[in-house]
Specification:
By secondary structure, the chain is α/β, with parallel strands linked by helices. The protein has one domain: Protocatechuate 4,5-dioxygenase, Chain B, CATH 3.40.830.10. The strands form 3 sheets. The protein has a 6-stranded mixed sheet, with helices on both faces. Strands 3-4 form a two-stranded parallel ribbon. The longest helix is centred in the last third of the chain and has 16 residues. The chain is globular. The two termini are about 35 Å apart.
């Protein structure tokens, strides 16, 4: 990707599922599922460049493989770094639009229309589970590139409902961790919950001449990425929530919080018995990492 195009990206920001047409029918359907056998994993996915949405590369191939390794979800709920709002919102339309929230990329990327159904009833149920704040039902947003670039590889038939939950930029990491815990029960109902961001995400320090060098990371980026991984594996959630105390490397990795907070959501959704594994664990351009995590 050319530097000009990358900077432009930085600065610019079917049918309904059969049998799930009302809130009551969704609950009837999901309540019939054996909870232990149907407990869905939780994923934190490093999404990186929007070009990953159309490229056949090691990252997109791993997303495809992941979809085959986990149970087929009844719906997908994504917390994307690119829906950063005042207050908490959830998409509640029947047919969410594809949002091309970037600039300077090839026409092929803008031509993508990933159009899975939404699920207004699931949106309402999710909102009802959250008591730490009022959740607004959104009919204006859709699926931004933090969601569709990943999910279109995982579920190319676009036959599984996909929703987004926004990140309230007025709240701290502790708030988001607690909010995520309130929707844990959705895992028991066949809903795949994903956080989409990047553990290390400092676009201002990207080494443009090393953008295509395999697994190239600055020393500080590799160091803090390993620290994050160690804390995630150890279940040290308090330290990850209070990431400011992790030192200058953490501040370089997280100059703004929107790409890190989706991880906090997945930590809040982790169960005591969930195994932790990492995938797509590589650095890009010196100051970004694609490191992703599976819980469960």
């Amino acid at each position: 990707m050319h530097r000009k195009k990358f900077i432009q990206y930085i600065t610019t920001g079917a049918t309904m599922m059969t049998g799930i047409n009302t809130l009551s029918s969704f609950k009837t359907f999901t309540d019939s599922l054996p909870e232990q056998e149907q407990l869905m994993p939780v994923l934190f996915v490093g999404h990186g460049s929007p070009m990953n949405g159309i490229e056949d590369n090691e990252f997109s191939k791993r997303w495809i493989a992941m979809a085959k390794e986990i149970p087929t979800p009844k719906a997908v709920l994504v917390v994307s770094a690119h829906w950063f709002t005042r207050g908490t919102h959830i998409t509640a339309m029947n047919f969410p639009k594809t949002i091309h929230d970037f600039g300077g990329f090839p026409k092929e990327l803008f031509d993508v229309q990933y159009l899975p159904p939404g699920n207004p009833e699931l949106a309402k149920e999710t909102a009802s589970l959250i008591h730490t704040t009022k959740v607004e039902l959104s009919h204006d947003w859709g699926l931004d590139h933090g969601t569709w670039t990943i999910v279109r590889h995982m579920y190319p038939k676009a036959d599984i409902p996909v929703l987004q939950l926004s990140i309230d930029y007025t709240k701290d990491a502790k708030f988001h961790y607690a909010l995520a815990a309130e929707i844990y029960s959705l895992r028991k109902k066949g809903v795949l919950i994903m956080g989409s961001g990047n553990l290390v995400h400092n676009l201002g320090m990207v080494a443009w001449d090393k953008l295509y060098t395999d697994n190239y990371g600055f020393d500080w980026a590799l160091k803090i990425n390993n620290t994050f991984k160690e804390l995630i594996a150890a279940g040290s959630h308090d330290k990850l929530i209070d990431y400011i105390k992790l030192g200058k490397e953490a501040m370089l990795a997280i100059p703004t919080p929107e790409h890190y907070l989706p991880l906090i959501y997945t930590l809040g959704l982790k169960g005591k018995q969930d195994a932790v594994s990492f995938f797509n664990d590589k650095a890009v351009g010196g100051s970004l990492t694609m490191t992703s995590v599976k819980f469960g």
